[in-house]
């Protein structure tokens, strides 16, 4: 038995428009949960082939994109390109500066492309590192089953029940576990002590806490206290469907967060400098001058 972390709050992510024609359910990065270090934003996105996120800049953070349905293309001014499909991930470190586009594929049945994008803060001594891009294919992600195969866990990063993830893909230490639970299942998931952690629910109903005191449906963010060994979750014996949720935990960063759109720095002066650098194509944004992504032309037509 682990000592379960208590629940600080649980709230439903509200859908809003974002990008060019996309819809997102944002939970981290709202008034309900702002600057939950090292996490800056969590978007549960749904985007059709006619919409997307054309050319735009970043500085000072990492983005982790986890696709649940469809396909998403990525292209940036450093020459990185990639396409992810269901179960795949993209990890992008903006560092001192990157300009990129993220555009959805076109599904045969016309259904939207759905996934999660998590923004993770960079430690202040890595804010101006060189940008980088990595991907992780679904087939590379180790899995484990527990509770007589009633709980299925994808270990994207971190450790679960003696199974480790393939490799660290972000500079800031983060655990990401994708969990599916059948009716009548119970999970005890240890987490690193002192790390901030939350669960985001995608499907079904899940009871969190030692006594199952917080029962939530889909699209809820459940925020946990730092104290305790980890998270306990359970499903009802008579549940009509499986529960599906993501547990995310990260090492807090002891630093100020000043954010202006896609720029996340430690001082206001650094944010002003980021805007100036982007406008003047300097100090990391040199390659933005005259650069235009090929995938972004799907929307611009140029």
From TrEMBL:
<dbReference type="InterPro" id="IPR011051">
    <property type="entry name" value="RmlC_Cupin_sf"/>
</dbReference>
<keyword id="KW-0408">Iron</keyword>
<dbReference type="InterPro" id="IPR012093">
    <property type="entry name" value="Pirin"/>
</dbReference>
<dbReference type="InterPro" id="IPR003829">
    <property type="entry name" value="Pirin_N_dom"/>
</dbReference>
<feature type="binding site">
    <location>
        <position position="100"/>
    </location>
    <ligand>
        <name>Fe cation</name>
    </ligand>
</feature>
<feature type="binding site">
    <location>
        <position position="56"/>
    </location>
    <ligand>
        <name>Fe cation</name>
    </ligand>
</feature>
<dbReference type="Pfam" id="PF05726">
    <property type="entry name" value="Pirin_C"/>
</dbReference>
<dbReference type="InterPro" id="IPR008778">
    <property type="entry name" value="Pirin_C_dom"/>
</dbReference>
<dbReference type="Pfam" id="PF02678">
    <property type="entry name" value="Pirin"/>
</dbReference>
<protein>
    <recommendedName>
        <fullName>RmlC-like cupin</fullName>
    </recommendedName>
</protein>
<keyword id="KW-0479">Metal-binding</keyword>
<dbReference type="GO" id="GO:0046872">
    <property type="term" value="F:metal ion binding"/>
</dbReference>
<feature type="binding site">
    <location>
        <position position="58"/>
    </location>
    <ligand>
        <name>Fe cation</name>
    </ligand>
</feature>
<dbReference type="InterPro" id="IPR014710">
    <property type="entry name" value="RmlC-like_jellyroll"/>
</dbReference>
<feature type="binding site">
    <location>
        <position position="102"/>
    </location>
    <ligand>
        <name>Fe cation</name>
    </ligand>
</feature>
<feature type="domain" description="Pirin C-terminal">
    <location>
        <begin position="177"/>
        <end position="283"/>
    </location>
</feature>
<feature type="domain" description="Pirin N-terminal">
    <location>
        <begin position="22"/>
        <end position="120"/>
    </location>
</feature>
<comment type="similarity">
    <text>Belongs to the pirin family.</text>
</comment>
């Amino acid at each position: 038995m682990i000592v379960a972390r208590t629940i600080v709050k649980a709230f439903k992510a509200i859908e809003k428009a974002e990008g060019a024609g996309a819809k997102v359910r944002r939970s981290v990065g709202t008034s309900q949960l702002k600057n939950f270090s090292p996490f800056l934003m969590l978007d549960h996105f749904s985007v059709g082939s006619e919409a997307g996120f054309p050319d735009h800049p970043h500085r000072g953070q990492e983005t982790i994109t986890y696709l649940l349905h469809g396909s998403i293309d990525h292209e940036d001014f450093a020459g990185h390109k990639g396409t992810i499909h269901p179960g795949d991930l993209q990890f992008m470190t903006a560092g001192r500066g990157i300009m990129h586009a993220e555009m959805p594929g076109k599904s045969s049945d016309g259904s939207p492309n759905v996934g999660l994008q998590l923004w993770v803060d960079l430690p202040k001594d890595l804010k101006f590192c060189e940008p980088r891009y990595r991907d992780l294919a679904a087939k590379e992600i180790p899995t484990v089953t527990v509770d007589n195969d009633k709980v299925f866990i994808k270990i994207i990063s971190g450790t679960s029940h003696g199974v480790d993830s393939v490799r660290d893909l972000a500079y800031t230490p983060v655990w990401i576990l994708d969990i599916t639970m059948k009716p009548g299942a119970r999970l005890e998931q240890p987490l690193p002590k002192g790390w901030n952690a939350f669960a985001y629910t995608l499907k079904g109903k899940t009871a969190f806490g030692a006594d199952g005191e917080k029962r939530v449906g889909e699209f809820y963010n459940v925020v946990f206290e730092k104290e305790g060994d980890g998270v306990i979750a359970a499903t009802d014996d008579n549940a009509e469907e499986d529960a599906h949720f993501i547990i995310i935990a990260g090492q807090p960063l002891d630093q100020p967060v000043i954010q202006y759109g896609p720029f996340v720095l430690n001082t206001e002066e650094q944010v002003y400098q980021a805007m100036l650098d982007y406008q003047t194509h300097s100090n990391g944004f040199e390659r933005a001058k005259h650069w235009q992504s090929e995938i972004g032309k799907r929307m611009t037509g140029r």
